[in-house]
Design a protein that fits this description.
The protein is α/β, with parallel strands linked by helices and 278 residues long. The chain has 6 helices and 11 strands. The chain has helices spanning 13-63, 73-77, 87-92, 127-130, 137-140, 259-266, and strands spanning 123-126, 149-153, 157-161, 167-172, 184-187, 190-195, 198-199, 220-221, 234-235, 241-245, 250-253. A 5-stranded mixed β-sheet has the order 7-1-2-10-11. A 4-stranded mixed β-sheet has the order 3-4-6-5, with no helix packed on it. A hairpin with a 5-residue loop joins strand 3 and strand 4 (167-172). The N and C termini lie far apart (86 Å). Residues 178-189 have low confidence and may be disordered.
Length: 278
Amino acid sequence: MTTPRYLRPGVSLMEILVAIAIAGLLLALLLPAIQKVRQAASIIREKNKVKQIELAFHMLAEQTGGMAGGALLFRSLLPYLDHPLTEEQLQRLSSDYAIPVFVNYDDPSLAVRSNADKGAASYAFNYQIHGNMRVLRAAVLRDGASNTIELTTHYTFGMNRDPDGVLHGYSRSWMIPEPLLITCSIEPDYRVTPLPTTFANPYVREILPSSPEAAVVTFQAKPPVDQIDYRIPQSPYSHGLLVGMADGSVRMVSPNVSPRTFWAAVSPNGGDLLGPDW
């Protein structure tokens, strides 16, 4: 006796739609988790860069008898970083050379110009500490190294249009001496001003501790590139500003920090106490 054979019908449209819906739901649940993991990994990478630069600050000070640094500070740090250059390479160094440790790859302004990372920096050092290479670093840090911000993120490139419609931009170049500003035209109606890799620098009209502006602003957290205020630091992260302290530690400063506390941390010798929001 022959057993009847039952053939299973093909997959119905409803089954396909259900499978697609389940796959889409799983993907929607996984994507935020994947993005959080990627962001955490990128922040760890950039924290390591800040740590490298901070260690280079200390090694440079040790080699120079404790001096603060001076105008070409980032160039002076190169022999103490993971990508040291020989003296011959230093002599031939040009603005076309990219130093990976000085570039934060989370910096959205890098996408504005194809060569924005060439000879430029996504980090800025505290001019209040390193503005004078003839003074001792320890003598400047009278408020304590653990209470003073020495390094912070800063967008490499910014731009805005004036009332006449002319597009203006700036780029943070680690090769440019501190007081020197050069304006050049790279295309019609477009001007770029290279700025030094500093913050709290009076020579380029950046906001200083104890100034009237310092009473109301701190830093910009993930601002659009065309809304940058070059006078203060920018963070590529919405949850805080990545900084290196003068004692070599690295931390993320909350965007809710008060202006008084933030600028007290910027000042190396103002005698200010950091607030409870630090």
